[in-house]
Amino acid sequence: MLTRIPCVHACDALSRVNKPPEDFCHRLLRMESYREIYNHHINPIPGQSLWEHAEECNRPHVPKIKRKPGKLQMKRRMNADEKGGGGSKKSKTDPNGDNVHLKRQLGPFTCSFCGNKGHTKRCCKKKRACDAAAAAVVVAEADKKKKNKGGAPASEQQLQQPQDDGDQRDGENNPLV
Asked: Which intervals carry biased composition (Basic residues) (predicted)?
């Protein structure tokens, strides 16, 4: 009954007492008041294209947007055939006219080690050869040092490699205090 219309239970109770439920409705909800309100002719409003344009009016201003701190998020540029927007990328087509995505065309690579075109420093044969030669020289020097250490007299070996007994001693096996 909050809306001034009797509920179903109230209508049932009124029908048992032989009273019409319309008598218990608000007067604005009756049919007579509805006909009285809409009795007059209401003119339709012209479309928005026919409205008058006002030059100086109090138009609402765009609210100032406060940027959140941190890195700005960029929306990914989508291809023209992807869903979610028109995208600014144009889809590439091959010469046959098929709508196929092609790989990007890269120019010829130039090696920064030898200066030749067609490969990079990573797969340069000359660089591999130089690296292998340098590694061979290092291995040869290591072998040479091993041979010098292995062929030297025992007294020279002791001077070159002092033994570590775990406690501190000077060269003459005297304990350090």
From this structure: 62-77
Within a domain: 118:
yes
Average pLDDT over residues 85-111: 63
Q: Higher-confidence residue: 144 or 162?
A: 144
DSSP-derived 3-state class of residue 175:
strand
Any domain includes 89:
no
Other CB atoms within 10 A of residue 114 CB: 13
Model pLDDT for residues 141-153, shown as the tens digit of each residue: 999 988 887 654 5
User: Are the beta carbons of 11 and 17 closer than 8 angstroms?
Assistant: no
Q: How many domains is the chain partitioned into structurally?
A: 2
**Domain limits for position 120:** 109-149
Residues of the chain with pLDDT > 90, as a percent, come to 16
Residue 71 is assigned to a structural domain of this protein: no
| DSSP H/E element including 174 | none
Question: How far from chain centre, in Å, is Cα 121?
Answer: 33
- Alpha helices per DSSP H over 3-153: 8-16, 31-37, 125-151
CA distances from 65 to 70, 71, 74, 76 (A): 15, 16, 17, 22
Q: Which amino acid is at 81?
A: D
Helix extents (H) in the chain? 8-16, 31-37, 125-151, 154-160
Tell me, yes or no, whether 101 lies in a domain.
no
